[in-house]
Structure formats: C-alpha cells, structure tokens
C-alpha cells in the first residue's frame, strides 16, 4: 500500500538520508553543483524535455510553470480542489496575473470534455484561456491518479485550441506505473 495523499506523508529512508549527506555540492548558480546538474539532466531525460530546472518546493515549480505558460490577463483551467487554487497563496494571480477557472470534479480528475467546455471562446469580452493545469497525484482527491489516456486526451484538446498544459506532478514518481490504463 503506497499512501499518495501528499509528499508530506512519505519519509526518507536511511539510504535516502545517506545519499543526501554524501552528495557532492557546489554553487548551482555557476552550474558547479554536480549533484544538481546530474539531477536536472536525469529529469530532462525522463520527461523527454530539452532541459529541467531544480526547484526546492512544489509551489515554486507550479508558480514558475504557470508564469512561463501564460500571459497576464489569461485564464488557467483546473479542477476546483487544485493545490494551485486552494493552497498556494494565489500565486497564479499574484505572479502570473491570471484568473483560475475552476471545474468541479469527482476526486480532482478532469476530462477532456470538461476542459473543452471551459476553454473560453475568443471574444472582445472574455479573457483567453492560457493553460490547463492537472495534478498528479491529486492531493485533495485522496491521491487519485490520472490515467495516461485521459491526460493525452486533455493535452490534445488543449493544444488543438492553442492552450498550453501544466502538470503539478507532486507525486508523479510515486504513481509511475499506476497510471497506464
Ligand atoms: C499536489 C501538490 N502540489 C504542490 C504541493 C506543494 O509542495 P511544496 O509544499 O513543496 O510547495 C503539494 C504539497 O503537498 C501538493 O500535494
């Protein structure tokens, strides 16, 4: 049984503590921290991205991610119990100047149809939808896991409409292998 409610309920094993204690360190601003460099290279490789950036908290990752994907005055579609909405000090509004369009869901998981219905039509009166944000695993959903198929459907629907995607992957490695359906 793996408890996926939150990263805060998991504890480092003795091997993890030893690895942290023994890690080679350096100045990461000068790109001289070999451990951070290796971590970022590995993360980029696993995610299939050109590069990765280590940040020390999930909230920082979400704040930077949403900021990079949106412009001031846009909307961000997410579920109504999303961590970015309920627990991150309105960072989406504060840093990105965006408003959240919150969709009520069953245990936090969006569907492509719901996302499509909530992408705003281009009009002189409505804010454009900049991004859709999903949470893997979903904190307030009790650790619910997005099936990969649902994610692909959401991303396809969003991309076809010029909307970008952000994943709050707080427990993505914990649920890896449980989301294939
Ligand atoms: C889904 C989700 N996103 C973001 C966070 C925030 O992480 P941090 O406390 O590292 O900022 C959490 C913390 O539990 C979380 O569950």
The biggest beta sheet is recorded as:
4 strands, parallel
Helix content: 25-40%
Strand content: 5-15%
Q: Which class do the helix and strand fractions yield?
A: alpha/beta
The molecules bound to the chains, other than polymers, are: pyridoxal-5'-phosphate
Number of domains: 2
Briefly note the CATH topology name of the largest domain: Aspartate Aminotransferase, domain 2
End-to-end CA span: 19 Å
CATH architectural designation of the largest domain: 3-Layer(aba) Sandwich
Identify low-pLDDT runs.
Answer: none
Q: Going by CATH, what is the homologous superfamily of the largest domain?
A: Type I PLP-dependent aspartate aminotransferase-like (Major domain)
Can you characterise this structure?
It is a single chain. The chain has two domains: 1-54, no CATH class; 57-181, 3-Layer(aba) Sandwich (Aspartate Aminotransferase, domain 2). A four-stranded parallel sheet has the order 2-1-3-4, sandwiched between helices. With 181 residues, the protein is of the alpha/beta class. The longest helix has 14 residues, at 34-47. The mean pLDDT is 94. It has helices spanning 14-22, 34-47, 58-69, 83-86, 91-96, 112-118, 148-160, 172-175; strands at residues 75-79, 99-103, 129-135, 164-168. α6 runs parallel beside α7 (148-160). It is globular, with a radius of gyration of 17 Å. Bound molecules: pyridoxal-5'-phosphate (PLP). Residues 6-8, 57-59, 83, 135, 139, 168, 170 line the site of pyridoxal-5'-phosphate.
């Amino acid at each position: 049984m793996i408890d996926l409610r939150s990263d805060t309920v998991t504890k480092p094993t003795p091997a993890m503590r030893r690895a942290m204690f023994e890690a080679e360190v350096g100045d990461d601003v000068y790109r001289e921290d070999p451990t951070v460099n290796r971590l970022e290279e590995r993360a980029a490789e696993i995610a299939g991205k050109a590069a990765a950036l280590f940040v020390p908290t999930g909230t920082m990752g979400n704040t930077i991610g949403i900021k990079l994907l949106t412009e001031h005055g846009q909307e961000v579609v997410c579920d109504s119990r999303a961590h970015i909405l309920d627990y991150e000090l309105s960072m989406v509004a504060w840093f990105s100047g965006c408003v959240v369009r919150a969709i009520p869901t069953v245990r936090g998981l969006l569907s492509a149809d719901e996302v499509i219905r909530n992408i705003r039509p281009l009009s002189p009166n409505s804010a454009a939808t900049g991004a859709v944000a999903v949470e893997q695993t979903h904190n307030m959903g009790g650790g619910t896991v997005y099936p990969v198929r649902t994610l692909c459907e959401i991303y396809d629907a969003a991309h076809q409409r010029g909307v970008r995607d952000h994943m709050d992957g707080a427990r993505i490695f914990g649920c890896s292998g449980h989301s294939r359906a």
